[in-house]
Amino acid sequence: MYERRSLAVLGLVGLLLVGCSKETTSSSNIKTGGIAALIDVYADTNTSATVHVELKVGGSDSNTYVDLDNGDELTASTGDQTKVLTTRDSGVYEASFSDVGAETPFTVVLNRPHDTSAADNSGALPAPFDLDKPTAGLSRKDDDLELTWAPFGTDDGMDFEFDGDCILPYSKSPSDLGHFTVSKGTLQSTGGDMPEACDISVHAQRSRPGTADAAFDPESWFRLHQRRSTKFSSLP
């Protein structure tokens, strides 16, 4: 009886693992209209950016990725730079660019010799910014925390995420005013009645949408981001 139960449990675990595993299919099996192209351009410095593309079948939340095959190829261009995206993982493709900045235009093309190509994927980078290091050593319970960055004043979206060993994750999406306040008590400590000090990381992102080709699955996107991070010490 014990052995049968053990085998049943192992079988269930195996099914769960299979259900969570990443699946792939060849692009030669999929029409362009069935491919969800999730295109992001990430700039982590003032002068460099990475074009990151994930190809899926079944929509943006699908766990089935598309491997380019049979002559299909992704390229990205900005200015006089054009690069073929290389495989980072199954269905995930990247290319890196230098000498970029505010409003640098990017175009991504899926070239398909045996089906409809998708060339109308484009957008421009938002402006870079500097994220100031928050004041160290403040109490999460008793002190307000001020976040500042510059330049500011764009219409682009801003997103902030806070994480650390001593807090629960926290996020906020303020307007691009160059500052916002995390009121005392907002960052929730872990540790119950014995909260601890730790370093907290702040990840900031300025983002804007581009245009994804209508030949793709409607859940496709083209998004462009400036990303910056800093860290500070925090007391309970």
Topology of helices and strands:
Layout: H1 2-20, E1 23-26, E2 35-43, E3 48-57, E4 64-67, E5 73-78, E6 81-84, E7 86-89, E8 92-98, E9 105-111, E10 118-124, E11 130-131, E12 138-139, E13 145-150, E14 157-163, E15 170-172, E16 179-182, E17 198-209, E18 221-235
Parallel strand pairs: 1-4, 2-18, 12-18
Antiparallel strand pairs: 2-3, 3-8, 5-6, 5-9, 7-8, 9-10, 11-13, 13-16, 14-15, 14-17, 17-18
Give the name of the CATH architecture of the largest domain. Sandwich
Distance between the termini: 51 Å
Largest sheet: 9 strands, mixed
| Overall morphology | elongated
Number of helices: 1
Going by CATH, the homologous superfamily of the largest domain would be Immunoglobulins
Helical percentage: under 10%
- Coarse structural class: mainly beta
CATH names the topology of the largest domain as Immunoglobulin-like
Rg over alpha carbons: 22 Å
Give average pLDDT, whole number: 93
Q: What series of H and E elements makes up the topology?
A: HEEEEEEEEEEEEEEEEEE
Any idea how many domains?
2
The number of E-state strands comes to: 18
Under CATH at level 1, the class of the largest domain stands as: Mainly Beta
Extract low-pLDDT stretches. Answer: 1-19
